[in-house]
Amino acid sequence: MLSRIAESLYWMARNLERADNTARILDINLVYMLEADEGATEETQWRPLLQIVDADQLYHARHPDQAVSVQKVIHLLTQERANPSSLYNCLRLARENARVVRDRISREMWEALNQFWLEVDRHLKVTLLPWRAEEFYSYVHREVALFFGLTESTMMRGQAYGFTALGSLQERADMTARILDVRYHLLLPDLSMIGSPLDYYQWGALLKSLSAFEAYRRQYQAGIRPIDVVEFVVLNPDFPRSLAYCVDGMGRTLERIDSAPNGKVTECMAALRAHLADTTPTGILDQGLHQYLEWFLVLLANLTQALQGDYFEAHLGETA
Amino acid sequence: MLRQYQFQSAASSPPPPSRATAYHEFYQDDFHPREHYRPMWEHIQHAGQHLLDAKAREAHLTLHTEGVTFTLYSDQDEGIERVWPFDILPRIITAAEWRAIEAGLKQRVRAMNLLLKDLYHGQNVLKDGVIPPELIYQGKDFRREIMDIDPPHSIYTHIGGIDLIRDERGCYLVLEDNLRTPSGVSYMIENRVVERRILPEFFERYRVRRVEHYPALLLQALRYLSPRGEEAATIAVLTPGQFNSAYFEHTFLAKEMGVELAEGRDMVCKNDRVYLKTTKGLRQVDVVYRRVDDDFLDPLVFRRDSVLGVAGIINAWRAGNVAIVNAPGSGIADDKAVYAHAPDIIRYYLGETPILENVPTYQMTDARDRTYVLDNLERMVVKAVAESGGYGMLMGPTSTAGQRAEFVKKIQENPRNYIAQPVVQLSRHICYLDGELESRHLDLRPFVIYGRDIQVVPGGLTRVAMTKGSLIVNSSQGGGSKDTWVLAE
Asked: Quick one: A57 exposed, middle or buried, by C-beta within 10 A (0-12, 13-18, 19+)?
């Protein structure tokens, strides 16, 4: 297929997945805020979100000398036009990419996404207020789920499907790693607590941001222990948002897409797999979760570059 | 051989009365619909306003959700996307009317194709004095760069979108030959899809001919051109990109035909061959259905600043390694100054009497015509010869003195660039607007495909001037559209 089309499919899916994840962390934070603990401030509750999506600097550029507030974070991450990864921009890009590949996705997928976008665009013409935000985010979850559901049920399992699935899985792995990284460090200042049960609500919020709460509870009955959380979120092969699950899925998707002409992608996939294999939760925590996740994100970024060279600019590899 | 041709200067024939009443397609007189509209009329009465309102809303919603849009160009960089405006009441053409239209269109396109072949080879048409040579040589769309190139099967005008209007007598006249990259066919099909969904009960009362096989016919015609044979043909639709006004149509056609939708940057030329950049490297292309104007097609040959085209594609075409649809240089055949000679062109190449007449046209290069037009500007429509979409024209009756003065200056500076026509009252038809049946002016664009033979899909795009009394139907100027039914014999 055309390289440009492959690239657009990939970014269509990535942007949708990102919008969904952004909506989820905002959503969970809002719920969590309703019954805040003593000592919690807007600052401590909302700053981590800025860190997760790398919007710290942007926030301070927009609001110098101002404390972090719910309204402003919601605005920045949801509808700020100047924030390239605001929900608004993610959905706009997803729809724009879908428009480019309109002849490659099913009619159902296009219509669902188009309608979704028109509605979001209309809705975000005015400022989203915190007490209306949750409703909006659950709408986003529903629509993204609808789109990917239609992708599963109406799209041919060819290359086009492959690049769509790849974009979605990669973005999910990326977000999972970021959420875990930021939250974990805020919640666990003291390493000696690794084996003990922790604050039910705060850790619950972490798991909920990953749609992992119920599944985790079923798997581990001993309360929420950091070591179990790491095992579940990083290594569980059956949890659909875990790093292991996403990387495995990406590997299999790439095999179906067909071997990359330059082989860079294969190398990068091998590095990602190796990073997750032969390791235990204890091993990860011993070497430092932050370092471990940071390196994972580097490997993911390498893969993005490799995709560029191997597929999106494949023709450059050909000699005249 | 000596050929004699009579050239009629339009000024010598009496102009049709400009105050005449427009022909009404629907009403026979004040109270009665024409015979073939009677079943529809009964149905409208029966349905009532409430139901029709609901249908109109449903139609709009459907088009909105499906993203059936076109883009309006504005001063901003990115155009404004608009939902396709659709009127729910279909326009009906009888089998007998269609027979004449179809024959006329085929005749016209066949002659225009012969004209192009001649103009880019021996130019007998100029030597025999049928068309004044300067008219061609001064034409913006005559492309010297492609002289003596032989396109596959000598076809230039693979796709034509001929604009027809009905004059005060109800006669079908050709208003424009669109032979470059005519658009609108996807809307013709979408109109039908929507109409069938919202008004199935209308269809039960008529035998309406199908139009949705257009993409299949087009694909057949494109495959026929493949230099490596039909079986091996790789076909691509070349689009300027998603900000083009007809982008919806480009995706529609690519999808319906199952071929690649590519932009200029997706292609590259090597050794006089055209390739697509794919995820598996380069793949050779045999037929390019381009929706990019000549000017932007190849920066090596035409405009150097073009980023929409493919550098080297003309050389590949010359070498016979790729077919380009429509052929470069086709624009000269729908130049509005050449249009005036269409009846002579048909007689010259085919030795036949033209079946479809022209609208009387005044050449601004002709001193007598020009004087007449400049003296009667408020009764004229002045058009730039190489523009389309309703851009660059003057509607005399509704113009201001300032606009007329501006056009006088333009015409005097560059007479070859303009033609003028008396204002023809386009036929009218009822539309369902805000709960009322209102009459609006409309035209018709049927689509002609020239492949192994010439085919016309029974139907076309009916464009409606949504503003009361307006004669401008272009969607870029606020026009709407209707489903168009051609009845079976």
From this structure: exposed
Q: How many angstroms away from the CA of A318 is the closest CA of chain B? A: 7
Q: What's the gap between Cα B143 and its chain centre?
A: 21
Q: Is it the case that residue A214 has pLDDT exceeding 90? A: no
CA A234, CA B246: separation in Å to the nearest integer? 47
Cα distances (angstroms) measured from residue B265 to each of B238, B257, B272, B328: 10, 21, 17, 19
How far is the C-alpha of A24 from the C-alpha of A209, rounded, in Å?
Answer: 6
Is beta strand B235-238 parallel, antiparallel or unpaired with respect to B260-262? parallel
Q: Which residues of A touch B260 (CB under 8 A)?
A: 1-2
Lowest mean pLDDT among B4-18, B163-177, B369-383: B4-18
Give residue-wise pLDDT tens across range B141-158: 999 999 999 999 999 999
Cβ-in-10-Å burial (0-12, 13-18, 19+) of B435 comes to exposed
| Side chain identity, residue B449 | I
Tens digits of residue pLDDT in B113-133: 999 999 999 999 999 999 999
- Whether residues B278 and A102 touch (CB distance < 8 A) is answered with no
In the CATH scheme, what architecture does the domain B360-423 have? 2-Layer Sandwich (3.30)
Under an 8 A CB cutoff, do B278 and A315 touch? yes
Q: Any idea where the domains of chain B sit in the sequence? A: 360-423
Residue B10's pLDDT is 41
**pTM attached to this predicted model:** 0.82
Contact assessment for residue B243 and residue B172, using Cβ atoms and an 8 Å cutoff: no
Q: Complex ipTM, two decimals?
A: 0.73
The residue of chain B nearest to residue A95, with distances taken between CA atoms, is B67
* E strand spans, B234-350: 235-238, 260-262, 267-270, 273-278, 281-284, 287-290, 323-325
> Among residues 228-267 of chain A, which lie with CB inside 8 Å of chain B?
257-258, 261
Q: Which residue has the tokens 């430092």?
A: A288
Q: Measure CB to CB from residue A99 to each of B242, B265, B275 and give the nearest one.
A: B242
Nearest to A318 by CA among B309, B266, B270, B285: B270
Residue A103 distance to chain B (closest CA, Å):
5
A26 min Cα distance to partner chain B (Å): 28
Residue to substitute from B279, B284, B289, interface A, most A β-carbons within 10 A: B279
User: For chain A, what are the domain ranges?
Assistant: 1-155, 158-320
- If one counts every other C-beta atom within 10 angstroms of the C-beta of residue A193, the result is 13
For A312, nearest residue in chain B (alpha carbons)? B279
pLDDT for the residue B109: 97
pLDDT at position B48: 86
Burial label for A39, CB within 10 Å (0-12, 13-18, 19+), is exposed
pLDDT at B8 over 50: no
CA distance, residue B436 to nearest chain A CA (Å): 29
